[in-house]
Amino acid sequence: MGPHVATIVALDAGGTSTRARGVRDGRVVHEGVGGPGNPRTVKGDELVASYTEAFAGCPVADLVVACVAGAGTLDMRAVVEDVVSSLQPGACVHVVPDYVAAWRAVSPIADVAVIAGTGSVVCTPDDSGGWDVSGGRGWILGDHGSAARLGQALLGWYAESPSELPEWVRSELRTRYGSSDWHWLVRILHEGSAPASLLSRGAPILTALADQRHPRATEILRTEMALLAAMTSQHVTRLLGAEAPLRVGLVGGVWRAPSAVTAFAEALSSQHPTLRLADDRPRDPLDGAESLAHDLRVTS
């Protein structure tokens, strides 16, 4: 029998989905997706079910690195570690906040990471090996530019003035929510255990409308991205100085929409001229989680 070849698993868990990638000897041996994996917004059996689905069919792992939204405190990291350890009992498990993976994904090209997924966060590493983070307050008090906020705006608009929206929007709502009746939408949002995840389903509809240059969708997107750009500018000014010429890297699903990237870039240029996008291609935080897992495997 030859030498043991380790299997490492990288996890990216957020407010909408939990994604797992298993790698052995440089080859991807597992890819899985589960439901929301943020331990602050999803609890108990539902949280376990999300991680179980992501790990379904995964080989036995030697190392699991879980980069998780909501895991900024020891108690939340312990919750995730317990769940992952129950699914991979022989593995060494490391749990870190999701922005660590985001930073790893953009660090080759950028000085600042701006995450716009279910929520929104701006982060940079500090001089002590820790992290400086702005945002992450959730869709009720913050998360401007996030999928949850964009979806919330879309659904509010639809409930208020459904006739303003083209017919294809109703079809998309039926696909994403099971119905285009706004009464139904209100009901599932109030009864659902993970409203941010539900709201996020509407974000691609709003950005698609903005990509088509629908005036109201464009206005909503510009307003949200201006607020996210303001948070980015304030973060950089507070930590690095107003005149620092820095590159901004984009991470998260919202940035797949060209209209979102354009709106953010225009707002950032207006508010903080020394900041610029490293490029307009969003990075995948799961790639950052895998990079971190490889490094931890080498040093462990």
Secondary structure layout:
Elements: E1 7-13, E2 18-24, E3 27-34, H1 44-55, E4 63-68, H2 74-87, E5 92-97, H3 98-106, E6 112-116, E7 120-125, E8 131-135, H4 147-160, H5 167-177, H6 182-191, H7 195-200, H8 203-211, H9 215-240, E9 246-251, H10 258-271, E10 275-277, H11 285-299
Parallel strand pairs: 1-4, 4-5, 6-9, 9-10
Antiparallel strand pairs: 1-2, 2-3, 6-7, 7-8
Helix pairs in contact: 3-11, 4-8, 4-9, 8-9, 9-10
Helix content: 40-55%
Write the CATH architecture name of the largest domain: 2-Layer Sandwich
Structural domain count: 2
Global geometry: globular
At the fold tier of CATH, the topology name of the largest domain is Nucleotidyltransferase, domain 5
Question: Which CATH top level class of the largest domain fits?
Answer: Alpha Beta
Q: Work out the helix count.
A: 11
Quaternary arrangement of the chains shown?
single chain
- Please write the string of helix (H) and strand (E) elements: EEEHEHEHEEEHHHHHHEHEH
Q: How many strands in all? A: 10
Radius of gyration: 20 Å
Cα(first) to Cα(last) distance is 23 Å
Structural class: alpha/beta
